[in-house]
Every structure is written in structure tokens, then in C-alpha cells.
From TrEMBL:
This is Ku domain-containing protein. It comes from the Eukaryota.
Length: 546
């Protein structure tokens, strides 16, 4: 399929990886987030090759099975007709250089490809690192001579032998050499998107400022290129049309209300409280200019890992600004020597709240370039002055009964109680916890000791221990404590015994677990009903004797 209709032109895709099957991909979380983008490119490709380099797999004993190629077909679904895989003989032998031989075959005919033809290599660089650099470098030079391009897509974490610092160029790297390709995508698992540099001034005090460029780095997949953006790039005039969104208040008759007649207000129940002038000015904004100010230094050991959750930034001196470069280099050297980090206050724009940022100093050993790695701390400064209504005039406080109910709810839902009802090993699912409580309560309803019954049913809630053996123990315990006395109970117990874990997939474990819970619940309901009936009969007998 020719991809020129969406701007890609002709594309050839090569998979250069140790394995290519769903189980392997599921382990490589970085790749799964990119799978949709690769599928989009595959829709534009007119050739797809798969190369296996089994001998250099991360697991030395790994052997490609005969059905591995078919598994790859299943994984890519409707792309099966496009896949061109190597024969089973090669796969069984696990020979080195299969990808390189395929690449060499294409290299001999690369001049026949149209200019700007794109070769996308989805790679873990196993073949390159383990002696295949000559063929790949030769292919890259042939592509450069023919006007074709190579796009490298990193498949997983890269080997330590080739790690080195590099400038950020985003996810897809149009490169003409393997070295540049490795340099630009080796840190993809940490950094996979960089915005354009945003100029700032890091204000240390009134006299000292460092002009910097802030690169926002997101640890999430880059957005898929939209058709509108692609069309705009190739000059479609219609794609440049912009639409201005208009928001208006409409009255009951469908007429637009003039802006000057609109009064903003909070709604609290049925009460409407107008927003005062001060709140209206500052509502949704701190009305503060963009700034980046130093607060203080802190020891690195005092900044816990839990604080470093969220998007990160890289701060570098502004290009060609020698004074800023010298100041940052001196500052970073002093901070690294003292083992401290910098705490700063950042305001991105007038429409955003102030953030507190921790800055970690770094210096590139090769280029001597100073930079900071930044993380936003979980802090937000709200400068609005909101006036809340007084509810004491129209609403009484909660009753004693309501307070008791809420206290019971808090006690029941609090983890880490002395009786350890909600164990750490239990699956953290509120629905299962409620089912656990229900079973315990129903056992209690038929006059059994709560803790003793918990010990019986607890194993079926332990994820790692849950299986056929625990189900058998549960059945034996039920039979020992509650002998079967009616046909209905016998039927339910037989249905419970028919639920099995043999040859079940992991994905079905939760479903089977819930089936067992349901059957146990039904058995206990029958027992509880019988117990209630027995109690009622005894009361009638007692009343009759009186």
C-alpha cells in the first residue's frame, strides 16, 4: 500500500530483534505504548521484514519455536499478508546475521528505490552491537547516496555498552548513520518527547540571573500525527482553516445573554452565592507574570523518591549565552560538591498556579555542558480568596445515629486493623473485600466463631496461593462444619466442586474466583435461612409451652 496519500511516501519496515512474539512484547512496556504508531506506519508500508537474532537474546537459553513466525502473524492481525518472514529452517537454527543478510539483499537494490523512500528499523540493536555494524553502516551510506532515509525506533532498554549522553530529538529520529540513531533514541525509556525550548531566566537573586531553556520531558507516548497536521505540511490550503470556539450563555427563550448582564456565582445546594469582585478577578488565575525563582538549597538525601513523581524537565543554558553558561557550570559544580539540590518556585504563565520545583545538578562528562533535571513537587499555591457560605443558619449538625454509622464505615474501611482483616497479600479490590465481609457475616449468622471461619476462607482471597488445592480445602471445611441436609444444598455443593482451575488461563482466574464466591454465598444463604427458620420454630415452641 502506497503511503503517499498521508505524506509518508513509500515505506519499508524491518524488525531487527531477538524475539518477535506477544509474550515478549508484553514484557517490553515501552514498545507496547508505541505499537499503535508502528501499526499506522505498517498501513503505509509496501514491505515488512522480520529478522531474528536468537543467539544474542537477553535470555541465552531462548530458542525460537517452529510456530514463532505464525505467532507473529497472529499478533499483527490483518497485516499477515504483508509480512515477509524467514523460513523455519533459519528460525530453528537461530543463526547470526539473518537480519544483516536481509539488509544486504536490499542494499544491493537500494538505488532502484524512489528518492525519499523511508526504511523504518524497529530494533533492539542486538545485531549491531554483536558484530553486525558493517552491514548496517554500509546500508546507511547506500541510503544516503540514493536519497533514502532511515528511521530508527527503539524497541526496549538499550545496552550499557552504547549508552552516552545526547541532545533530545524526540521519539522518531531521521538519521543517516547507526551511531546517530543510537545516540538519539537510547534514552527513550526515560525521555520520549521534548517540546521546543522555552526561554526563561532562573532568578538566583536581584543581581544574578541565568538565561535558560526549559525542555518539558513527558514519560508518556507522543501523540500520533493527525491527518490535519500532515495535510498542512504538504500544503493543503483547507487544512490551514482555523475555527474559533465561542462560548455564550443562553436564556430560557434561546436568546444570548449579554456578557455584562452575567453574574458569576457559586452554587451550594439550592443556594446561589455571587462571587465578589476580588474573587472574580483572581478566579482561575494567579494574575502573576511568568517567573522562575530560587528559594533555597536542600540536601539531596532530604528529597524522597515519592516527591519525584510527575513530569520532568531539563534546564540548560541559553544557546550562545556565555555568561549564563559560566554561571550555571560554576553553580552545578558547587552543588554537586556539596551534594545539594535547588528548590525553586515556578510560574509558567498567568493562567497557571505556582509550582514548587526541585532541581538536580548534572554536568555532561563529554561536552562539559551543565544542566538541571527538574521534578515538580506535589505542591500548588492557591491565591484565591473564596468566601464559603455559613451553613449553621439553615442546617443542623448530624444526629447521634448518623455519627455512629459514619464511625462504623470508617472503622470497617480502615486498613491495618489489629485483626488484619484486609491482608497485604489480598487483592486490593473493594468488591472482593465486600464479598469477604458478607461471607464472614453469614457464617457468624449461623452461630460460628468469626475468626475461625476467616481462617477457612482466607486462602481463597490470597492471590498467589489461590488455586485448586485451596478450593478443595474450602469444600472440606464447608462439609465438615455444615453437613448436607437438603437436595438444594447437595446441588450447590456439586456445582461448587465442578468449578476447576485445570488448564485455565491466568486471565480467567478472577472470573473463576468470583464463581466460587457466588456458590459459597448461595450455600451460606441456604444455611442462614435454615438457621433463621429453626430459631423461629424454637421461639414458637417456647411461646406455646408458656
Amino acid at each position: 500500500m502506497d503511503g503517499s496519500h498521508i505524506g509518508w511516501g513509500n515505506v519499508s519496515i524491518f524488525f531487527d530483534c531477538c524475539q518477535l512474539d506477544p509474550i515478549y512484547f508484553q514484557k517490553q512496556k515501552h514498545f507496547m505504548s508505541r505499537f499503535i504508531k508502528i501499526r499506522q506506519m505498517m498501513d503505509c508500508a509496501n514491505r515488512i521484514d522480520i529478522g531474528y537474532n536468537v543467539k544474542h537474546s537477553t535470555e541465552p537459553e531462548t530458542v525460537i519455536k517452529e510456530d514463532c513466525v505464525q505467532t507473529s502473524f497472529d499478533f499483527f492481525g490483518d497485516m499477515e499478508e504483508k509480512l515477509i518472514a524467514f523460513g523455519k529452517e533459519d528460525c530453528q537454527l537461530g543463526m547470526i546475521g539473518m537480519f544483516n543478510r536481509r539488509l544486504a539483499a536490499v542494499d544491493r537494490n537500494v538505488e532502484t528505490f524512489e528518492p525519499d523512500h523511508k526504511f523504518i528499523i524497529v530494533s533492539d540493536f542486538s545485531s549491531y552491537i554483536n558484530g553486525g555494524s558493517e552491514e548496517v553502516d554500509k546500508f546507511a551510506k547506500s541510503c544516503e547516496k540514493a536519497g533514502c532515509k532511515i528511521i530508527f525506533v527503539g524497541l526496549k532498554d538499550f545496552y550499557s555498552e552504547v549508552k552516552r549522553e545526547c541532545p533530545l530529538k524526540g521519539e522518531w529520529c531521521d538519521v543517516l548513520s547507526v551511531e546517530e540513531g543510537i545516540a538519539n533514541i537510547q534514552f527513550y525509556h526515560i525521555i520520549n518527547k521534548a517540546t521546543r525550548g522555552t526561554p526563561y531566566a532562573l532568578e538566583l537573586n536581584d543581581q544574578h540571573k541565568i538565561n535558560i531553556v526549559d525542555h518539558v520531558v513527558l514519560v508518556k507516548p507522543k501523540e500520533i500525527m493527525s491527518f490535519k497536521k500532515v495535510l498542512k505540511e504538504i500544503g493543503d490550503e483547507e487544512s490551514t482553516t482555523t475555527y474559533k470556539r465561542k462560548f455564550a450563555k443562553i436564556d430560557d427563550e434561546g436568546n444570548e445573554i449579554p456578557k455584562e448582564n452575567i453574574i458569576n456565582a457559586f452554587k451550594f445546594g439550592v443556594n446561589i452565592i455571587p462571587i465578589n469582585h476580588f474573587d472574580e478577578i483572581y478566579h482561575g488565575t494567579n494574575s502573576e507574570a511568568k517567573s522562575f525563582q530560587f528559594i533555597q538549597f536542600a540536601k539531596s538525601k532530604d528529597i524522597h523518591l515519592s516527591f519525584l513523581v510527575g513530569e520532568s524537565h531539563m534546564i540548560m543554558p541559553k544557546e550562545n549565552d556565555k555568561p549564563s553558561f559560566k554561571r550555571m557550570l560554576a553553580l552545578n559544580m558547587a552543588m554537586i560538591e556539596s551534594d545539594v539540590v535547588m528548590i525553586t518556585r515556578k510560574v509558567y504563565s498567568k493562567a497557571s498556579a505556582a509550582k514548587m520545583v526541585v532541581m538536580f545538578p548534572r554536568i555532561n562528562e563529554t561536552t562539559n555542558m551543565p544542566y538541571f533535571v527538574n521534578f515538580n513537587l506535589p505542591f500548588s499555591q492557591d491565591v484565591r480568596s473564596l468566601v464559603f457560605p455559613n451553613i449553621n443558619d439553615w442546617c443542623d449538625g448530624p444526629s447521634t445515629n448518623e455519627e455512629d454509622v459514619m464511625n462504623e464505615v470508617v472503622d470497617r474501611m480502615t486498613l491495618g486493623r489489629e485483626d488484619k482483616r484486609f491482608l497485604p497479600k489480598q487483592t486490593n479490590d473493594p468488591n472482593l473485600q465486600m464479598k469477604y465481609e458478607t461471607i464472614v457475616d453469614k457464617f457468624t449468622g449461623v452461630g460460628r466463631d468469626v475468626q475461625e471461619i476467616r481462617d477457612i476462607i482466607k486462602p481463597i482471597y490470597l492471590y498467589k496461593e489461590f488455586g485448586e488445592e485451596n478450593k478443595r480445602k474450602l469444600n472440606e471445611a464447608l462439609k465438615a462444619r455444615f453437613p448436607i441436609t437438603t437436595p438444594q444444598e447437595e446441588k450447590l455443593m456439586n456445582e461448587l466442586n465442578q468449578i476447576t482451575f485445570v488448564n485455565q488461563r491466568l486471565a480467567d482466574v478472577e472470573r473463576i474466583k468470583m464463581e466460587i464466591f457466588g456458590k459459597v454465598d448461595q450455600i451460606l444463604a441456604v444455611k442462614e435461612e435454615a438457621h433463621i427458620n429453626d430459631v423461629a420454630k424454637n421461639e414458637i415452641k417456647t411461646e406455646g409451652s408458656l
